[in-house]
Amino acid sequence: MKRKRYTPEFKSQIVLEVLKEEKTMSEIASSHGIHVNQIRQWRNAFLEQMPQLFAKENKKVDQMKADYEQQIENLYAEVGRLTTQLSWLKKKSGLKE
């Protein structure tokens, strides 16, 4: 007998259904043709991993902030270089500011 493979999206749907508590786990299992123990495993895996999802999200935000600040710093440095070059070119060409 071939094993059934479920997509992460499908598993998420089932876990959300369980967490809503509108139906029992047995009702959800029979309506989707999945064993109750499988649904229990998916729910437990979700509950165990949920705190790490938020930690990853915070790390991404912190990384985005750091990247943004670095980009701003680089842009200010570029503006400084270009201003200096413009002043030098004006001075060399004899143009008045």
UniProtKB/TrEMBL annotation:
It comes from the Bacteria. GO terms for molecular function: DNA binding; transposase activity. Residues 54-85 form a coiled coil. Pfam families: HTH_Tnp_1. Keywords: Coiled coil. One of its GO terms (biological process) is DNA transposition. InterPro entries: Homeodomain-like_sf, Transposase_8, WH-like_DNA-bd_sf. This is Transposase IS3/IS911 family protein.
